Amino acid sequence: MAVPPRIAVLASGRGSNLAALIAARDAGTLPVEFALVASDKADAGALRLAEAAGIPTLALSPKAYPDRRAYDLDLLDRVAASGAELLVLAGFMRVIDAEALRPWVGRVINIHPSLLPKYRGLHTHRRALEAGDAEHGVSVHFVTAELDGGPVIAQARLTIEAGDDEQRLAERLLPLEHRLLPAVLGLLASGRLQWRDDGAHYAGQPLSAPLLLGDRGLE
């Protein structure tokens, strides 16, 4: 039996997507081993979730470093020292320096609450509503130095309803996030999803369009 890949997770907030990953691991549907959960905020809920699950944690404050680059280099050095082979950004609210990221390109994914390339950055639910969009969604993409700009791997779509405000839309989208991220990480962990010089490949073929999350999983 193949040894499950070791993963690290970076998170800044409550850690609901981390909880989904842990639940999938515990259910036997996500064959990974958690090497580390790290955060830029010592009070992040994600760290408490990791501690409760017996996963090593790291809280590293950016204020202790002279600049963003120094922080990112040290953070990712520590991630590498944990033995992690793959890295997941699950609500990590920082843009990682390109030099620090370079050794990880092709091994790091991020979940972003919009149908990329729409609405990179913050306040995605508000922006979708203000634009009068008919649908909203969530994307998982490979991380590059460009903000929310790496190749999109998979998406889940949601119809915007008349009663949606920013909070309700976010709440309705969350269950899709919790299905999408473990599904994509599972593909990466199994080797079915790979990064090559010309971008994302799935099942040995270039990924020409994002996979879509349906009732039966990713298609």
TrEMBL record:
A single GO molecular-function term is: phosphoribosylglycinamide formyltransferase activity
EC code(s) of this entry: 2.1.2.2
Question: Which Pfam families would you find in this protein's record?
Answer: Formyl_trans_N
Tell me which residues make up the Formyl transferase N-terminal domain.
Answer: 6-185
List, in alphabetical order, the GO biological process terms annotated in this UniProt record. Answer: 'de novo' IMP biosynthetic process
- Which residues are named in the active-site annotation? 112 (proton donor)
* Pathway in which this enzyme or protein is active: Purine metabolism; IMP biosynthesis via de novo pathway; N(2)-formyl-N(1)-(5-phospho-D-ribosyl)glycinamide from N(1)-(5-phospho-D-ribosyl)glycinamide (10-formyl THF route): step 1/1
Give me the residues that bind N(1)-(5-phospho-beta-D-ribosyl)glycinamide, please. Answer: 15-17
Q: Name one GO cellular component term.
A: cytosol
Q: List residue numbers at the site (Raises pKa of active site His).
A: 148
| SUPFAM superfamilies the record matches | Formyltransferase
What does it catalyze? N(1)-(5-phospho-beta-D-ribosyl)glycinamide + (6R)-10-formyltetrahydrofolate = N(2)-formyl-N(1)-(5-phospho-beta-D-ribosyl)glycinamide + (6S)-5,6,7,8-tetrahydrofolate + H(+)
- Per the UniProt entry, the signal peptide is none
Q: Using the UniProt record, name the top-level EC class of this enzyme in a single word.
A: transferase
Q: Which UniProt keywords apply?
A: Purine biosynthesis, Transferase
Entry keyword Transferase: yes
Q: What does this protein do?
A: Catalyzes the transfer of a formyl group from 10-formyltetrahydrofolate to 5-phospho-ribosyl-glycinamide (GAR), producing 5-phospho-ribosyl-N-formylglycinamide (FGAR) and tetrahydrofolate.
Q: Tell me what this protein is called.
A: Phosphoribosylglycinamide formyltransferase
Which organism is this protein's natural source?
Rhodanobacter lindaniclasticus
